[in-house]
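Protocol step 4 of 6.
Sequence for LisH domain-containing protein ARMC9 (Gasterosteus aculeatus aculeatus) entered exactly as in the expression construct, tag removed. Do not edit the line below.
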Amino acid sequence: MSSGETNTMGDILATEADLLGIIKEYLKFQEFEETVDCFDKECKGKGKLISKPHVNTVRNSKVHSIQKDLLSSFDDGDPKVFFELWTENIPSEIKDTDTEAQSLEFYLHIHFTIYPLRRHPGRHDRAEFEERISRFKRYLETRGAALSQTAKFLPYYALPFVPDPTVHPSFKDLFQDSWIPQLKDKLEPFLSGTLKPSNTPRLLSLYVSSIGTQAMHQLHLHMIESDRRIASYVRKLHKIAELVDSLEATVSGKMISPEYLQSVFVRLFSSQMRQSAVQSTDFTRPGTASSMLRASIAPQKSREVPMLPSLDYEKLKKDLVQGPDRLKCLLLQALRWRLTRSLPGEQRDTVLQAFISNDLLERYSTKQKTLLQLMRSKNEIVRQYMARLINAFASLAEGRVYLSQIPVLLKPLMEALRTEEKDSLTRENVLVALQKLSLRRSQQTAMIAANLIDWLVDELQDSDCLSDYTLQYAAALLLNLCLRTKGKRKCAENARHVLKVLTDVLGHENHEIRPYVNGALYSILCIPSVRQEAKEMVRKQKLEGKLQVFTVIRRCTDVLVSWRVFAEPILSNQHLISASTPMTNGS
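Step 5 output, structure tokens:
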């Protein structure tokens, strides 16, 4: 074997040993002790080497460097470098909740504020000191505001307003020789305890790194595409502006009348301005129209969206479970309005994330009484308002993800469908929520297993007694379930009944349900036994002079086209909250 081949083989064995070491490190991190023993035995039996765990010297040296830079900037009195490192490397959960960290941060701000007075007493740079005082004021008004209720910190809130703190009796301790060493003695152990090297196994670090790289690549591609489109639109609009300039020049040459040009511009801007404003603007004045066109493509200042005040979710959940019915109704309505009446975008996303992060519907709870028990309340209004809240959750994509993680959700909703009165608002909201949830595969599977298809077919059999709203969502829900192979097989179990109900519903006066019914028919007719049953029905109805089913089968190809056009999923938040259109998978 040549030396080159020997080196290559050695590299492969070293890499293999390193990979096996990474796997063993991860198994030990997850405490799979028995698996680790078996892994060791099998590797030994096959003669495979396992590399020893690596001490991550790079990670350790980085932590050491950060700690060294923090202490160095502390000694130099450099607040800019220090607080940049502090913000980047001290975890938020420690900075925001740990009282020791908050106290230390407060005294650190004082240290950097009075640093010029300590270093050059009597001859310090006044401008530099004023800048540090301003920075300290900003801290007291923001992060430091929470400590104003603590007696030991209260005197220091007067520091920015004292002309010469060095002679003020309240601050004499700050200028003692021992004050800085004592503060540093607190800082050093805090940094050592907080800036610990991570013990994350290499396999997990590699995975997280690869996922992050892929995500960044996708974001980069999206940004490039967005920039390309924006540049294209800007070029087009600039061409329009140039065209307008040319037209204005033509006016000055008496080639077309100003009245004609005015009428062109009125039509051009009527969609952007009030009609009265358009009519009163003199577009024939040189520069007017082109300036307005250029202004229309200028970047708009983003409007600040106010954030809603936070809530005590633990008390809310307790009152919703244990409070009187009237209080339950008021709280359920307030929570729903908080979500549905929030501004689309950041504000609504924040509200929904607050609901989810505080586990409003208690998806992981093992308690016997949770909020979902309100669906079984004896009070009809409580049941209705709870169904409305669930429907509001289901109207948003993240809300549907959250609801899908509640394993016991479907049972009370199905009970409500079967026990509530036909004209009940509770039943209507439950049906709409289920239809939206049926966009998720896991929920489709659970609904099919719960025999929801049978219930929907029986419900549609009596379509003349249903409201248009209920009829539309029931048909859309049936379509979503029929798109699944399990759903098609479920329909095939009673094919004659399903086909008869669906073909009858096609004749309903509400034409908006036809795309959903056509889609469901097209889907189940893919099953050979259903097609055979349909042919039997055709033969029988031909004898009776009824060709409805025959017509349906003959038009199946056309049905697919129309269904795809009309039953595309409507997933934008502004449509979902209004719940005016059922959502279908359309695939």
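Step 6, annotate. The first helix runs from residue 3 to 29.
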